[in-house]
């Protein structure tokens, strides 16, 4: 009898081990892999990055008199800088109309014309947080805002709230509590300077991802199927260099 019990226990361990090895892999079970670094000259702070299918566009924030959008190739080489005169918090590319949009300090969203450097008000007074840095669905249909741990889903065309839900946990230090990023299936919020919590589109916790480096609170972004954080320039009107780091999850 003792031999049988011992043998059964060994077999059970073997079966569990096989299931653990051959079973369905959980999302984000691999360590994040850094796939790109972009050296980004800005005035004040590195706050957001977007991708239009060909080039990256970075946004700085902190002062409307010195706000620029920098354009980079897919490989991260500088192309051109554009003075847009907005105190930015978030930049997105909408494939539906092939335009860039910037959320400013405040509650408005602007469309950007890089040819002229001009901006046009697209959505007025639709956001809850002046400092919020948004997430967006890659198809451009929805915008996501986090404010005091509440996620608001907004229709991009109208700015109207579609639904909202509260996260049980979020990192509520200034800067880290204001940023959210989104992919097709997941929402990303800060847990700490080098940790990101992942939720599904219903706000259910999926995983916590530890990044190989720390990032600036407002910078959390997702584009081109890459999660981004920035080492902030923390510069002034004289400008300085920050660095964008992209991670494949």
Tell me about this structure.
The chain has 1 helix and 20 strands. It is mainly β and 249 residues long. The strands form 5 sheets. It has a 4-stranded antiparallel sheet, with no helix packed on it. A hairpin with a 2-residue loop joins strand 18 (221-223) and strand 19 (226-231). The relative contact order is 0.17.
Strand and helix map with partners:
Elements (H helix, E strand, L loop, with lengths): L1 H21 L10 E10 L2 E7 L4 E6 L6 E5 L5 E6 L4 E7 L4 E6 L4 E5 L4 E6 L11 E2 L5 E6 L2 E6 L5 E6 L13 E3 L3 E7 L2 E6 L4 E6 L10 E3 L2 E6 L8 E9 L1
Antiparallel strand pairs: 1-20, 2-3, 3-4, 4-5, 6-7, 7-8, 8-9, 10-11, 11-12, 12-13, 14-15, 15-16, 16-17, 18-19, 19-20
Give a quick set of tags describing it:
Methylamine Dehydrogenase, Chain H, 4-stranded antiparallel beta sheet, disordered N terminus, 249 residues, mainly beta
Strand content: over 45%
The CATH architecture: 7 Propeller
Count of distinct strands: 20
CATH C-level class is: Mainly Beta
Give the ordered list of helices and strands. Answer: HEEEEEEEEEEEEEEEEEEEE
Query: What does the overall shape look like?
Result: globular
Gyration radius over CA: 21 Å
**Strand pairing plus helix content: what structural class?**
mainly beta
Total of domains: 1
Q: Distance between the terminal alpha carbons, to the nearest Å?
A: 49 Å
Mean pLDDT figure? 87
Helical run tally: 1
> Low-confidence parts, pLDDT < 50 over ≥5 residues?
1-25
Query: What is the CATH superfamily label?
Result: YVTN repeat-like/Quinoprotein amine dehydrogenase
Q: CATH topology, anyone?
A: Methylamine Dehydrogenase, Chain H
DSSP helix fraction = under 10%
